[in-house]
Amino acid sequence: MSAMPPCPECGSEYVYQDGTMLVCPECGHEWSQDGDAEETAVIRDAVGNLLQDGDTVTVVKDLKVKGSSLVVKVGTKVKNIRLVDGDHDIDCKVDGMGPMKLKSSVVKKA
After folding, report:
1. Cα dihedral 56/61/64/69 (nearest 10)
2. CA distance 49 to 104
3. Distance of CA 75 to the CA centre of its chain
4. Residue 19 CA: distances (Å) to CA of 2, 4, 5, 22, 31
5. What are phi and psi of 106, to 5 degrees?
6. Which three-class secondary structure state does DSSP give residue 108?
7. pLDDT band at 2 (very low <50, low <70, confident <90, very high)
8. Half-sphere exposure of 73 (CA within 13 A, CB side)
9. Distances (CA, A) of 77 to 43, 52, 57, 89, 105
10. Beta-strand (E) ranges in 19-106?
11. CA-CA distance, 25 to 15, in Å (whole number)?
């Protein structure tokens, strides 16, 4: 019988296998048997470049701001973005407009 690795959350040695997953009965944490393969969302810009928190991006098409007559113009630089979950996956502050959320498909990495 092969020894199971300890739980990465609580360090418990009482780990058991359930199908392809490993389960800790003490804290309830479940993880893949493949090891440290963390599933993280990969967010790419309109051109295919990988985006990360803190990047500077440029808007690639005019964007109407919902609820106002303002427009974010093509070429507007947005600094220090923050990636979030959801349909609009970039949280940022646009100069002259204020805080807003953008889709990664309308920006490219600067």
Report:
1. 90
2. 10
3. 24
4. 15, 14, 16, 8, 11
5. -115, 10
6. strand
7. low
8. 4
9. 18, 16, 6, 17, 15
10. 21-23, 30-32, 57-59, 63-64, 71-72, 77-78, 82-83, 90-94, 98-102
11. 7
pLDDT tens per residue across span 11-63: 888 999 888 888 989 888 888 876 544 445 689 999 999 999 999 999 999 99
Q: How far apart are CA 28 and CA 44, in angstroms?
A: 33
Record the tokens describing residue 94, joined without a space: 């646009």
The pTM of the full predicted model, rounded to 2 decimals, is 0.63
Three-state SS for 94? strand
**β-sheet with 107-109: strand ranges across:** 77-78, 57-59, 107-109
